[in-house]
Amino acid sequence: MRNINKPLKADQQHSKKDWFSTQLLEWYHIHKRNLPWRETRDPFKIWLSEIILQQTRVNQGLPYYLKFTEEFETIEDFAQADLDEILKIWQGLGYYSRARNMHECAAMIIEKYDGHFPNNYQELQNLKGIGKYTAAAIASICFNEAVPTIDGNVFRLTSRFFGISDDIAKASSFKIFFDKGLQHIPEHEPGNFNQAMMEFGATVCVPKSPNCEDCIFSNLCYAHQRDMIDALPVKSKNIKIKHRYFNYHVLRYKNQILIRQRTSGDIWAGLYEFDLYESEKSLKISNFENAKLLYSTNEIIHQLTHQKLHIQFGVFELNSEQAFEEIRNEKLMSTVSVNALGDYAVPKPIELFLNKEFCQ
């Protein structure tokens, strides 16, 4: 490990270790936010909260957590639900593979583990969609195993306080931060320690303009003492954005409309959409055979992690029921009433389109 701090002597290391974990836990018990998943050690609810909060802010994820726990009290309830039902509740969170993996994971727990989560870090990682971070959260919070969670907040706090300059975008850096966590996580409160690390990173040691003046660690923080807050953590950027152009044909006849379910192997698998023509560049919505173009939208941009979607909608009224049915059969689509569209899980851009322009 390349640590840009001056090495501490053995007695100093022991003192700093005890001081760091003690101070962090004291801070956490006083300042932690009142969140429902902090009132339980139920593995199902901890798992649910951790999966939801991946790539999702707490204030955005909280309503989803409450809705899921209201609909599904146990892992058995969740496993027995239809995937469409889960995707509908998940709608708007994005990264829909998380919801699909959760459904598969729940079935695996019922079938292989008799409805009980494995009680250790290593075995939890055998479950669908559960990686090192989620496994560590469940193991420490629910089963009191002293294994550290490593997420963006932990990377940032650890890097700044201890002066670790290893690139967090590289897979090799995980072990460096994981080993540092192992040095400091207390055996008696591993779950609270992990939650405290994430909470401190999320509320105090934030990415930009952290609250260093009121930080309990500022006197010993490597980055603060050396004016390196903006330099740590080190994270290289090598993301290539792919542009895609989606042209949706909203085909309707009176109060009926055509939709289809997206298949696996691409974004939004399992969600419903209108007839789609994907082009290589932006196009003007053109006429559709046996249909009248009622109106089209301006192009909207929907940003994903590695993709930028350029989306436009054209709303068409078919000139006869026969033409409507022929298109449905030709394109292997399903007929639903306009009023029932809200029952189907759709991608965020389609949800926004429906809410703003189509179902008013």
Can you walk me through this structure?
The protein is an alpha+beta fold and 360 residues long. It has two domains: 10-225, Endonuclease III, domain 1; 242-358, Nucleoside Triphosphate Pyrophosphohydrolase (Alpha-Beta Complex), CATH 3.90.79. The chain is 43% helix and 14% strand. The chain has 14 helices and eight strands. Strands 1, 2, 3, 4, 5, 6, 7 and 8 form an eight-stranded mixed beta sheet that branches. A hairpin with a 3-residue loop joins strand 6 (300-303) and strand 7 (307-318). The longest helix has 22 residues, at 10-31. The N and C termini lie far apart (58 Å). 32% of the residues are buried.
Please give the radius of gyration in angstroms. 25 Å
Distance between the termini: 58 Å
User: Low-confidence stretches at least 5 residues in length (pLDDT < 50)?
Assistant: 1-15
Structural class: alpha+beta
Q: Can you tell me the CATH superfamily of the largest domain?
A: Hypothetical protein, domain 2
Shape, please?
Answer: elongated
What key attributes describe this structure?
disordered N terminus; alpha+beta; Endonuclease III, domain 1; 2 domains; eight-stranded mixed β-sheet; 360 residues; Nucleoside Triphosphate Pyrophosphohydrolase
